[in-house]
């Protein structure tokens, strides 16, 4: 079996790898463009940007790459529709949406010839997405970093979804290396989405302290938080998590962001993610996948993708279609 191209509607990626859209401001234009330049699909994380900021980020990515550029926007955020419309206005190729489900998104995509790819964690939502016009779906298991829609592992869930729908299915959650990619493709997926692997890249615009959390992680440092979004979130245990456990983290009576449609106010998710992105590990929340502890080096995106493709092909016993 050869490493396939990934077809999403009218889009064709030479490499079946989607770089996860990690917020806040973890997946930005340089990372998305670098992945797109290597034949994958690069995603900018729209959540956490103001609409004009996101438009500038998309323009920057377009200047840096002629490949496939998309955005990932959380349905749970208050400016979801504004960010979607801004992305469409900038001619974005694909919109990936998770942390909730929006039926309106499908009609916006169809009206503007933009491919829509929801992130789902059940057969039911996969079928609904197909019926509403999704170009593909991302199936995310419990191994993923960030906000989770299930406590079920990816592989058995992926098998069920692949059997239930006819559109391309992209596996996500705990995919770190080429062997992982090969295993997911063998289960019938059209491609994979990877987040944590690309945090540990030179092009990812987070502070070195953030990346060092990944490099210093071990199997025991994975942690599930009760996020203000209303979903569990997978993060790395650090001083912020310890303070959260001891109930030392509070939001106060006012909010500077008003970023969520509904917020439990347990702590400020926006503030903690921004501080992590800037390198403040005392007050910053570092989301990471269940197997992020396997990462041990920070590399350029070009080298990361070359390594992934080479290893995946070895396990599949074939070569890339272009070779």
From TrEMBL:
Gene Ontology molecular functions: dioxygenase activity; nitronate monooxygenase activity
Record-linked Gene3D superfamilies: Aldolase class I
Lineage top rank: taxon: Bacteria
SUPFAM superfamilies membership: Inosine monophosphate dehydrogenase (IMPDH) (SSF51412)
Keywords: Dioxygenase, Flavoprotein, FMN, Oxidoreductase
Function: Nitronate monooxygenase that uses molecular oxygen to catalyze the oxidative denitrification of alkyl nitronates. Acts on propionate 3-nitronate (P3N), the presumed physiological substrate. Probably functions in the detoxification of P3N, a metabolic poison produced by plants and fungi as a defense mechanism.
Record-given protein name: Probable nitronate monooxygenase
Organism placement in taxonomy: Bacteria, Bacillati, Bacillota, Clostridia, Halanaerobiales
């Amino acid at each position: 079996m050869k490493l396939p191209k990934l077809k999403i509607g009218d889009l064709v990626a030479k490499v079946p790898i989607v770089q996860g859209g990690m917020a806040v401001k973890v997946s930005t234009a340089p990372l998305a463009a670098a992945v797109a330049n290597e034949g994958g699909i690069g995603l900018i994380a729209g959540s956490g940007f103001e609409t004009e900021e996101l438009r500038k980020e998309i323009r920057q990515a377009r200047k840096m790459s002629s490949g496939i550029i998309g955005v990932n926007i959380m349905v749970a955020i208050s400016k979801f529709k504004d960010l979607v419309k801004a992305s469409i206005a900038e001619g974005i190729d694909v919109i990936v949406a998770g942390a909730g489900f929006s039926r309106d998104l499908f009609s916006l995509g169809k009206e503007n010839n933009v491919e829509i790819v929801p992130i789902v964690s059940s057969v039911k939502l996969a079928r609904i997405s197909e019926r509403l016009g999704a170009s593909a779906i991302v199936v995310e298991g419990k191994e993923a970093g960030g906000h989770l829609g299930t406590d079920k592992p990816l592989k058995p869930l992926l098998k069920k979804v692949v059997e239930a729908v006819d559109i391309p299915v992209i596996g996500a959650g705990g995919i770190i290396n080429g062997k992982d990619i090969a295993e997911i493709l063998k289960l019938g997926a059209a491609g994979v989405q990877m987040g944590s692997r690309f945090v540990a890249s030179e092009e990812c615009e987070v502070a070195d302290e953030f990346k060092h959390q990944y490099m210093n992680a071990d199997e025991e440092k994975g942690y599930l938080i009760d996020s203000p979004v209303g979903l569990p979130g997978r993060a790395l245990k650090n001083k912020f998590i310890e303070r959260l456990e001891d109930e030392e983290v509070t939001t106060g009576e006012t909010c500077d962001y008003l970023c969520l449609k509904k917020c439990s106010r347990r702590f400020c998710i926006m503030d903690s993610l921004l501080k992590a992105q800037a390198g403040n590990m005392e007050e910053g929340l570092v989301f990471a996948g269940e197997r992020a502890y396997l990462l041990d080096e920070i590399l350029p995106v070009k080298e990361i993708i070359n390594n992934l493709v080479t290893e995946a092909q070895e396990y599949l016993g074939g070569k890339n279609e272009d070779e």
